Amino acid sequence: MNRQIEVECVTNKENEMQKAEAKVIEKPIIRNNRQGHRAALVGMSNETKDIGLMFLQYNDWYGSVVSFYPSGMSPKTSDNFGHSPDPVYGSKGAVVYYGQVNQTTQGAWLLAWSAPIVTGGAVPPNNQVYVETGNKKDFDNIDWNVIEEKLDKSSKESNYTDQTTGCTAFAEINPNDDSALILATFNAR
User: Fold this and answer.
1) Which domain of life is it from (predicted)?
2) Which of 1, 58, 72, 108 is the most exposed place for a label (fewest CB within 10 A)?
3) Dihedrals φ, ψ of 37, to 5°?
4) How is residue 146 annotated by DSSP?
5) CATH number of 70's domain
């Protein structure tokens, strides 16, 4: 069954870190054509107090976005999109958003994921997620090969804080029936 997600931010009482949680709602969004193909359902939450985030760029290693990537997110809102799988490799992509952190600095938030396919009875490959934040100017000309190497070395959770801009990101990827569910939280100190 195909699903769409709504993202809600909760605060972890142990470390006061905010993290996205999802409610899966029944709504057609992606249809996987063949058994074992892994679509990605991505939910992003902008937990900044007053920074609007705007879409900067994307990279699709495998698969493609369903419809479009969200153009932006106001503070304290969330949005989502689906990423259809490549018939051989699954879903692997990245998005970057940016916003005005202070009068002189624009920050950027990168989210990358990998949801490989499962072939006939094989052990499912690892889903992976990677986040990175920093100054927007450092994300204007991304070396996607470097990001892919970092993604390939990552695990099912990733977090990153840029000390210069104060931008933070957390993401996790989990199985969800015939898709991978990716939840990301973007914030700034």
Assistant:
1) Eukaryota
2) 1
3) -80, 140
4) H
5) 2.60.270.20
Residue holding tokens 């605060």? 11
Side chain identity at 152, as an amino acid letter? Answer: D
Cα 138 to its chain centre, rounded Å, is 19
Rounded CA separation 140/165 (Å): 16
The CA–CA distances, whole Å, from 167 to 29, 75, 137 equal: 31, 14, 14
How many structural domains compose the chain?
1
CA distances from 80 to 42, 49, 100, 147 (A): 5, 20, 22, 22
pTM score above 0.90: no
Q: Can you tell me the distance from the alpha carbon of 163 to that of 160, in angstroms, rounded to the nearest whole number?
A: 10
> Which residues in 8-22 are b (16+ Cβ under 10 Å) and which e?
ebeeeeeeeebbbeb
39: domain range? 3-188
Contact 92, 64 (CB under 8 A): no
Phi, psi of 138 (to 5 degrees): -75, -10
